[in-house]
DNA sequence: TTAGGGTTAG
């Protein structure tokens, strides 16, 4: 054997040196002994040659060698060549070889059909099968049906094949039956699949596996798990395929115990070195968050394939350890394993997670250089998502528009990208654009992406329209859609609707609880927040870090210092949640707002982590409210050293100086902001009139009805002054004359929006305003008076909270 | 010589 193999190698070496078929032909003739397979044990020798075929290139060499030796006249040899070409993905040569065979046997036809299936050419496989049937040259056999069943495109085609199977009497074959079971499951006819399964006289493990996969394909994962348990009860051995199919089910059902039991089974039955099994174990442990276990399985693997590397990379990515994921990606490359689309998809998520713009661009470049990758929708969507999460929306938009094909997830990714970056108008525009595309139908993800945009804009009418649409398709009771609706109603000032919706949807996860608590929080109903929190605990729902953020923020806005501190402590002591910088920020806000500035400052100094801009920002805002210029200076110095590009800190500090008349300080702040090329964020307010949102900028006179608006504004100010309103000029930043100061205050954008709403909406109707910055104290006071004289309920949502004005007072009780 | 059921994703 060994000698013959060496001869085959020698021939191949010889062939490598030869430039043409004629040269090798001369060598063949020159050889005194002739070519081994011409004389002796022909079959063994050819098989040895075939065994050397590790690529399509070598197959071609061997093929040429066989042509010159005249061996390809044998159907056996030609059919083997078809198989070899197909195994190496060279369909063109498989087809060419098939075409040269004059009289084909069942092996030849079966091999060609399998070659088409293997290379994903489904319609060609069907045509080939039809040709075989119509030619009548040879009848199909039990080997013909499994591959063709795998690729049939409709249930009708599948049933036709089923009839043929029955007619030809191949239903006894377990391979054929498993393929039929799978075919029926694929088209959603799981009852027909089970009928076939039940009537099988003999079943092997693949028959059970086909049924298990059938249940999974038809969203009946519980039944799949039942089947596995039945197999174990009947002592039917679970094979690697069973294990690889059922482990994702355990992860999906959150059934960790079953997952562990399967792992024990794997070890006991010597399956722990099966690549498919290990890959599925890595994925299962990753989904349960047991990275250490996933890592151990990966480390013990004797052979790792691309899926193994992808799985460990994705395990770290899913558990938010992007750095380790990238380390494994490098390891994968060192081991000579080429990345595929799934590797790159995970990497894009890692890069986004790490906020690593530089590597994001590098990754995008890598994908662009392999142009075929961008043709893949999943790849394109992952890149759009990456740029959106990195906050580079221009790139996200560009990649989206350059994608040759887009699906609903592409649109959802773009819409949520805009929403999450605060670009609500862009999100709703993208949604409208999507609506005009006939080829996509909105799904759950679409509503979850667009509703936050309407919430952000305070566009109640638009949000209600979406509510109507989701009711029609029975999605309003979906936890995620329902939560977005609660958030939307909460943010648009309809707390009652939010609450009734909350009690309609499933409340087993923290998600809807967080939404309803936060809705009450922004309206200043902190006592209700705490009651809802108690109810949440009674219902056995575990709070998460978001729940505590909402609670702390609610306590902070209403001055419930003790309750806030209690929340901060139980979060750590009772629920083991480590405070994030956002929690620390809320605590500083809570103490600072209550005037406990020193306590807030000491709290920052006692922090176990480095305070960031949100923490110092909260202290600075509190200093503004309580007029502590000295501490404010310290906080603003810290802020500017952390984030010198944020104009808000300069504005706030200059505001503090202005408040105490330190105009030098104001100028210093202004010039240092200008020196860095920073411009004050222009304030704007929007109001929904009819189905349209009108936007007003401070001092803006470009609105078509600006004359009437200013006229109304002056009339209102005159009236409220008579009622006792006195402008508070401390909210004016500039060092100007008194009447000029009044002019500056009176042109704040929310006042323009309120004046416009008063002249454009029916009397008694509620006015809802959205402001991008915080409402100033003077506008707050002015609006209170306006709500009294106009007999209107005015709801102003600013960047921080809700102000609900009614009959001359505000829901926030003037707690600033 | 040819075949079925399987793991990772936006």
**Given the structure, what is the number of helices?**
45
In the sheet with the most strands, the strands line up as 2-1-3-4-5-6
**Number of E-state strands:** 6
Rg over alpha carbons: 36 Å
User: What's the main sheet like?
Assistant: 6 strands, mixed
Structural class: mainly alpha
Uncertain regions spanning at least 5 consecutive residues: 29-44
Write the layout of secondary structure elements.
Layout: H1 2-17, H2 21-30, H3 36-39, H4 42-51, H5 56-68, H6 75-87, H7 91-100, H8 106-118, H9 122-135, H10 145-151, H11 155-168, H12 174-186, H13 190-198, H14 205-217, H15 221-233, H16 240-253, H17 256-268, H18 275-287, H19 291-300, H20 306-318, H21 322-334, H22 341-354, H23 357-369, H24 377-389, H25 393-402, H26 408-420, H27 424-435, H28 444-457, H29 460-472, H30 479-491, H31 495-502, H32 510-522, H33 526-538, H34 545-558, H35 561-573, H36 581-593, H37 597-605, H38 613-626, H39 629-642, H40 647-659, H41 663-675, E1 684-689, E2 692-697, H42 706-722, H43 738-746, H44 749-760, E3 767-771, H45 777-790, E4 794-797, E5 802-806, E6 809-810
Parallel strand pairs: 3-4
Antiparallel strand pairs: 1-2, 1-3, 4-5, 5-6
Helix pairs in contact: 1-4, 5-6, 6-7, 6-8, 7-8, 8-9, 10-12, 11-12, 12-13, 12-14, 13-14, 14-15, 14-16, 15-16, 16-17, 16-18, 18-19, 18-20, 19-20, 20-21, 20-22, 21-22, 22-23, 22-24, 24-25, 24-26, 25-26, 26-27, 26-28, 27-28, 28-29, 28-30, 29-30, 30-31, 30-32, 31-32, 32-33, 32-34, 33-34, 34-35, ...
The chain binds one DNA strand of 10 nucleotides through α6, α8, α10, α12 and α14.
Keywords: Repeat
PPR repeats: 105-139, 204-238, 274-304, 305-339, 407-437, 509-543
Domain DYW: 724-816
């Amino acid at each position: 054997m060994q000698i013959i193999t060496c001869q085959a190698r020698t021939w191949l070496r010889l062939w490598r040196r030869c430039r043409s078929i004629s040269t090798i032909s001369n060598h063949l003739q020159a050889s005194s002994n002739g070519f081994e397979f011409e004389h002796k044990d022909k079959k063994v020798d050819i098989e040895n040659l075939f065994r050397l075929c590790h690529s399509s290139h070598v197959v071609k060499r061997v093929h040429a060698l066989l042509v010159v030796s005249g061996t390809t006249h044998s159907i056996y040899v030609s059919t083997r060549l078809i198989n070899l070409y197909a195994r190496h993905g060279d369909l063109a040569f498989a087809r060419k070889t098939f075409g040269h065979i004059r009289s084909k046997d069942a092996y030849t036809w079966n091999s060609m059909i399998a070659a088409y299936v293997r290379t994903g050419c489904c319609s060609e496989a069907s045509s080939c099968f039809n040709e075989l049937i119509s030619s009548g040259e040879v009848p199909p056999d039990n080997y013909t049906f499994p591959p063709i069943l795998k690729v049939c495109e409709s249930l009708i085609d599948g049933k036709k094949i089923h009839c043929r199977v029955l007619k030809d009497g191949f239903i006894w074959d377990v391979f054929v039956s498993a393929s039929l079971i799978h075919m029926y499951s694929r088209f959603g006819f799981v009852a027909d699949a089970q009928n076939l399964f039940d009537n099988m006289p003999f079943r092997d493990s693949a028959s059970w596996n086909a049924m298990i996969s059938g249940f999974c394909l038809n969203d009946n994962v519980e039944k799949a798990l039942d089947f596995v348990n039945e197999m174990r009860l009947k002592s039917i051995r679970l094979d690697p395929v069973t294990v690889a199919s059922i482990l994702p089910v355990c992860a999906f059902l959150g059934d960790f115990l079953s997952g562990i039991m399967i792992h024990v089974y794997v070890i006991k039955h010597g399956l722990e070195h099966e690549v498919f099994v290990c890959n599925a174990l890595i994925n299962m442990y990753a989904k349960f968050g047991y990275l250490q276990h996933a890592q151990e399985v990966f480390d013990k693997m004797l052979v790792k394939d691309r899926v193994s590397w992808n799985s460990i990379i994705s395990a770290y990515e899913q558990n938010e350890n992007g750095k380790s994921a990238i380390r494994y990606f490098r390891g994968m490359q060192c081991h000579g394993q080429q990345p595929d689309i799934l590797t790159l998809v995970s990497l894009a998520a890692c890069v986004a997670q790490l906020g690593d713009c530089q590597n994001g661009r590098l990754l995008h470049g890598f994908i662009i250089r392999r142009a075929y990758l961008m043709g893949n929708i999943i790849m394109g969507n992952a890149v759009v998502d990456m740029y959106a999460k990195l906050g580079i929306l221009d790139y996200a938009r560009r990649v989206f528009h350059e994608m040759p094909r887009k699906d609903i997830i592409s649109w959802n990714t773009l819409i949520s990208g805009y929403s999450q970056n605060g670009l609500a108008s862009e999100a709703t525009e993208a949604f409208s654009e999507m609506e005009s595309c006939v080829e996509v139908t909105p799904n759950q993800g679409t509503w979850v992406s667009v509703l936050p945009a309407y919430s952000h804009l305070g566009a109640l009418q638009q949000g209600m329209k979406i509510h109507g649409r989701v009711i029609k398709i029975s999605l309003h009771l979906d936890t995620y859609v329902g939560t977005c609706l609660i958030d939307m109603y909460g943010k648009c000032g309809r707390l009652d609707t939010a609450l009734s919706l909350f009690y309609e949807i499933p409340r087993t996860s923290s998600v809807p609880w967080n939404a309803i608590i936060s809705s009450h929080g922004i309206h200043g109903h902190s006592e209700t927040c705490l009651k809802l929190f108690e109810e949440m605990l009674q219902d056995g729902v575990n709070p998460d870090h978001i729940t505590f953020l909402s609670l702390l923020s609610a306590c902070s806005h209403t001055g419930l210092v003790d309750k806030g501190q209690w929340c901060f402590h139980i979060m750590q002591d009772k629920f083991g949640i480590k405070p994030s910088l956002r929690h620390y920020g809320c605590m500083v806000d809570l103490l600072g707002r209550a005037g406990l500035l020193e306590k807030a400052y000491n709290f920052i100094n006692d922090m176990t982590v480095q305070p960031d801009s949100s923490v110092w920002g909260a202290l600075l805002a509190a200093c503004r409210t309580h007029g502590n210029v000295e501490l404010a200076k310290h906080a603003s110095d810290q802020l500017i050293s952390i984030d010198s590009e944020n104009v808000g800190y300069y504005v706030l500090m200059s505001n503090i100086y202005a408040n105490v008349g330190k105009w030098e300080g104001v100028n210093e702040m202004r010039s240092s902001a200008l020196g860095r090329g920073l411009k004050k964020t222009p304030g704007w307010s929007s109001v929904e009139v009819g189905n349209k949102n009108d936007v007003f900028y401070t001092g803006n006179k470009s609105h078509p009805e600006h004359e009437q608006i200013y006229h109304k504004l002056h009339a209102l100010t005159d009236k409220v002054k008579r009622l006792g309103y006195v402008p508070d000029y401390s909210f004016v930043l500039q060092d100007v004359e008194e009447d000029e100061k009044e002019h500056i205050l009176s042109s704040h954008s929310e006042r323009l929006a309120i004046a416009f709403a008063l002249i454009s909406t029916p009397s008694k109707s509620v006015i809802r305003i959205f402001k991008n910055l915080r409402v100033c104290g003077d506008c707050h006071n002015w609006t209170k008076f306006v709500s009294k004289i106009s007999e209107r309920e005015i709801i102003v949502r600013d960047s921080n909270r809700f102000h609900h004005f009614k009959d001359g007072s505000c829901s926030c009780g003037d707690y600033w």
